[in-house]
């Protein structure tokens, strides 16, 4: 037998070994043997009979517990065996709480001590009442959004959802007496960071050791998940593009299903007593997530990734996410992440426990994705259009290639350089060919509109830069005019609307052709036709869903149709303006009627 989490050997007795006995009592119990050396050999103990009387008395006087002290013999040599049972209440030695972990003893302080004390009293961090916050301080919009999610998931009855905010909070077990619990503040307060430090998610884009840019995501926990996903797939990653008929298919380096499960898992299971936020690091060839969380004491990485029951670190938060339909509560989250990656053909994710607390999850990119993305960057450099770097060091692939590649895919004439690039790489980017620039970031955050959402193949660069930042389209490959910028700021949605508006303001086809470096209006006309066809298909799918489920939410529509909620809003507004649909009842709790 060797020393382990339940066995400790000491050559002779010292009063400081009361700390080891305290550690055993606070953990899983154990045996302290006096009279063995580090190799486990019995070497005997001086004054052993006196120790048989003194040790139990000292333990009871200084620790307040009762242990077994036994006289043992091996090979004719005597030693002491001190057997310590695990105690349900916390045990301290001179004001310090010691804890046996592995084959070492630790002194619990700070967040670890808070977690330990709560566990001993059968509580969790998120279950503790928080004075100073009342129902009136919670965000009504977040509670209404929760109601919609819960209604869609059908995990709360409509009778409960129709009750007051106070009753919903009560049903979720988020109140104790007159006080809200910490979980309620994190879930439904508009600024939980005022009460819980570091309760946010931080995303950064790295090239080697250098941080190029970052975002801090605050707000309620539901919003943190949604916002993190939006940023990861609109600003921080690029998509490989292919077409299934007229439908555009985007393949990201990490499947959205896997990433969403990972972000939700981090938000639910993190240790909110820690002073470190959740960190998501995006590199050229991988994405890593670090969660300041703790595994159950008897768990390992192997058990985490295998079959296990659900043991959430924050049960109150997990329960609300379950009722909202965002988790299953069967302990299958880790396996769902692995399965999503396997189904998508991406490398298996890797988990690692950090000594002292914290869990790393890494999503490596596939070799094929890396090769294709690197090839795009190489060709963009060769044709003179990029890569270009802004002040933050971000790579920007030339927008001319993006325009021409899209036009070529839609049937228009493309330049030979773009044709070669498109055929060899088959890739375009989510925003502008690389991690989005700060100008594009501002537009994406405020509007959430991309050409994909609008169904049209117009260039994303012209839309993103002219809607918000006013950056001229000379950056995009052509001499833009102020008229085009002003018109695009007012509409900025589809190529069809840009065409219609520019005709009204007197901008000639030749100017538009010069901006996009086309030699004739044929590409624009074909692009308009494709845009109308895709728009029509998207709106037909939306109408079919509205007929089947009039009370469907915009978010659920977006998931079913395959566009963002802002894209759904755009199509709903067009259909309502055209008199095809109307909304009946309250803004958030009404229903849609299809009129035509």
Protein described:
The protein has 596 residues and is an alpha+beta fold. Helices cover 43% and strands 16% of the residues. The chain has a six-stranded mixed beta sheet with strand order 10-9-13-14-16-15, with helices on one face. The protein has a four-stranded mixed beta sheet with strand order 1-2-4-3. The protein has a two-stranded antiparallel ribbon with strand order 5-6. The protein is elongated and about 100 Å long.
Strand content: 15-25%
| Largest β-sheet summary | 6 strands, mixed
Shape, per Cα inertia axes: elongated
The largest sheet has its strands arranged as 10-9-13-14-16-15
| Global Rg | 31 Å
Mean pLDDT: 76
Structural classification = alpha+beta
Distance separating the two termini: 80 Å
Total beta strand runs: 20
Number of helical stretches of at least 4 residues: 24
| Amount of helix | 40-55%
**Unreliable segments (pLDDT under 50, ≥5 consecutive)?**
384-524
Task: Map the helices and strands.
Layout (H helix, E strand, L loop, with lengths): L6 E4 L7 H9 L3 E5 L13 H16 L4 E7 L2 E8 L13 E4 L2 E4 L2 H11 L19 H14 L4 H4 L3 H7 L3 E2 L2 E2 L1 H7 L12 E7 L2 E8 L3 H14 L5 E5 L2 E5 L4 H14 L8 E5 L3 E6 L9 H5 L9 H9 L9 H12 L5 E4 L5 E6 L2 H16 L5 E2 L5 E2 L2 H11 L6 H10 L12 H10 L3 H4 L5 H10 L12 H9 L4 H10 L4 H8 L5 H27 L5 H8 L3 H13 L3 E4 L6 E4 L2
Parallel strand pairs: 1-2, 9-13
Antiparallel strand pairs: 2-4, 3-4, 5-6, 7-8, 9-10, 11-12, 13-14, 14-16, 15-16, 17-18, 19-20
Helix pairs in contact: 8-9, 9-12, 14-15, 16-18, 18-19, 22-24, 23-24
